[in-house]
Amino acid sequence: MQEFTKFPTKTGRRSLSRSISQSSTDSYSSAASYTDSSDDEVSPREKQQTNSKGSSNFCVKNIKQAEFGRREIEIAEQDMSALISLRKRAQGEKPLAGAKIVGCTHITAQTAVLIETLCALGAQCRWSACNIYSTQNEVAAPRLKHGVAVFAWKGESEDDFWWCIDRCVNMDGWQANMILDDGGDLTHWVYKKYPNVFKKIRGIVEESVTGVHRLYQLSKAGKLCVPAMNVNDSVTKQKFDNLYCCRESILDGLKRTTDVMFGGKQVVVCGYGEVGKGCCAALKALGAIVYITEIDPICALQACMDGFRVVKLNEVIRQVDVVITCTGNKNVVTREHLDRMKNSCIVCNMGHSNTEIDVTSLRTPELTWERVRSQVDHVIWPDGKRVVLLAEGRLLNLSCSTVPTFVLSITATTQALALIELYNAPEGRYKQDVYLLPKKMDEYVASLHLPSFDAHLTELTDDQAKYLGLNKNGPFKPNYYR
Q1: What pLDDT is stored for residue 41 in this prediction?
Q2: Alpha-carbon gap, residue 199 to 182, rounded angstroms
Q3: What secondary structure does DSSP assign to 273-289, as a single string?
Q4: Is 443 annotated as a binding residue?
Q5: 358 assigned to a ligand binding site
Q6: Confidence (pLDDT) at 24
Q7: Which residues fall in a compositionally biased region of kind Low complexity (predicted)?
Q8: 207 a known binding residue?
Q9: Is the separation of the CB atoms in 293 and 310 below 8 Å?
Q10: CA 63, CA 52: separation in Å to the nearest integer?
Q11: Ligand-binding site membership of 315 (annotated)
Q12: 93 is in an annotated binding site
């Protein structure tokens, strides 16, 4: 109370309240602690910053946060031993020597470990963020010491977002020959704005449902002129990142932003793919009453046999307390649904893109937006009804909390191997199409992570291998297995 009374004015109290609520939601990221309030008022695009080598070819929130960011990266490395192992095994060979990788992913401590691995394997990298809210500012800063040009900060505007991507791609004397994307925005930008650069790309690695969908559209139209690797549908991404990561991070994101108790709450989860399965398992374990919406009869049948009721959204929209989208589609939750929701209903998205909830329809004169805390808005109807919208409909876990490092190690290792495979593949192995990661590599990624659990694989005898028609060393699954 003594501290509070130091701020006698109304403005001062609001400032203090804002700092408290921000730290509660951003506690996973040191940015909340290490950034001066004065920094928030100035766009990084307007600042003049240089690194230790005198270069200003970057744009981050505050380069002075590099020391704190380095500590977070070192923590992440402790649970990414497989990726570090890959780095040590291949470092002497430099399989990515000559590779110029332009990346657009979430910029977190875990991604930083991946970027440093790519650099250790010989690549040059330039990076931007695939989400305007998920960047950890202090983690972006240390990349500059490794010669990685980063253009990203937490809270970018839409204009900033595309400006950062363009600055990554458009640099005199440097032309990308590999793309690592999460969501397809970078690939789309290069394809549209720099067609000559796009034609010279040796390979694209994409890790999201949205981005993969865009690649298949380009391929079907005959406009994909480079080979692409669909990492999203690799087993080590689909069955681990999408499932186990979301099983843990959905609760983290909701708790940090709303302090909600799940026991007895009615929740509808739109989509029962791997992300939906992970979310539902976590919510059910805490006593929530979970409904599922699905378009796919196979996924719907799985939901039924897992003990969930499969419904249409219209049937339950008036009674549910929480709405979670994870379909990869657009307009899953429309203005009509939002109008019919009960007071204080929480609405959020666990898919990559911000198209699942029709947020644009809420920006109308009759509705009032009230910022409650970082990434939490009350949208108020004329009759006083409030809907709690999280992260403005963007990806909840990486915008509002964090994700388990170990699972991200699996995905990052898969991405690194996909880049190595595409970059070193002999001419003719991959045509201008979208490919799945070879199962042998999927299994290699899994094997690198088993020592963390002190797990010991059983080896087939020669007779058993012959009986199954398999090589003793794998692959143990056909290429079509997902």
Answers
A1: 66
A2: 20
A3: SHHHHHHHHHHHHTT-E
A4: no
A5: no
A6: 32
A7: 17-36
A8: yes
A9: yes
A10: 10
A11: no
A12: no
Q: Are 450 and 247 in contact (CB under 8 A)?
A: no
* One-letter identity of residue 226: V
Task: Report the b/e string of 129-164 with b at 16+ CB within 10 A.
Answer: bbbbbbbbbbbbbbbbeeebbbbbbbbbeeebbebb
| Residue 92 assigned ligand-binding role | no
Residue 366 in marked binding region: no
- CB contact at 8 A, 122 and 96: yes
What string of H, E and C letters represents the secondary structure of 35-94?
CCHHHHCCCHHHCCCCCCCCCCCCECCCHHHHHHHHHHHHHHHHCCHHHHHHHHHHCCCC
Domain 49-233+404-444 class, CATH top level: alpha beta
Q: Do 243-400 and 49-233+404-444 fall under one CATH topology? A: yes
262 backbone dihedrals φ, ψ, rounded to 5°: -90, -25
- What is the chain's length? 482
Output the pLDDT for position 8. 42
Q: Which of 126, 180, 171, 174 is nearest to 152 (CA)?
A: 126
Token representation of residue 325: 């989208």
Residue pair 95/423 in contact by the 8 Å Cβ criterion:
yes
Cα 469 from Cα 461, distance rounded (Å) = 12
For tokens 């990414």, the residue is 80
> What pLDDT sits at residue 477?
87
Q: Please give the C-alpha separations between residue 425 and each of 2, 226, 227, 430, in angstroms, as whole numbers.
A: 66, 13, 11, 7
| Residue 196 annotated as binding site | no
- The answer to whether the beta carbons of residues 332 and 355 sit under 8 Å apart is no
Q: Which of 265, 214, 271 is nearest to 243 (CA)?
A: 271
What's the pLDDT score for residue 431? Answer: 93
40 among annotated binding-site residues: no
Question: Is 135 annotated as a binding-site member?
Answer: no
Cβ contact 190:201 at 8 Å: yes
**Is 182 assigned a ligand-binding role in the annotation?**
yes
Under DSSP, the state recorded for 358 is -
Dig out the tokens for 121 from the structure: 């394997």
Token pair belonging to 398: 């990486």
CATH of 243-400, one of 3.30.160.20, 3.40.1180.10, 3.40.50.720, 3.30.830.10: 3.40.50.720
pLDDT under 70 in the chain at which residues?
1-41, 51-54, 143-146
> What is the residue extent of each domain of the chain?
49-233+404-444, 243-400
CA nearest 135: which of 59, 39, 188, 50?
59
Q: Tell me the CB-side half-sphere exposure of residue 297, using CA atoms within 13 A.
A: 0
Cα Dmax for the chain:
82
Q: Which residue has the tokens 């925005």?
A: 185
437 secondary structure, DSSP code: P
Does 387 appear as a known binding residue? no
pLDDT in tens, 34-57: 333 344 567 888 887 776 666 778
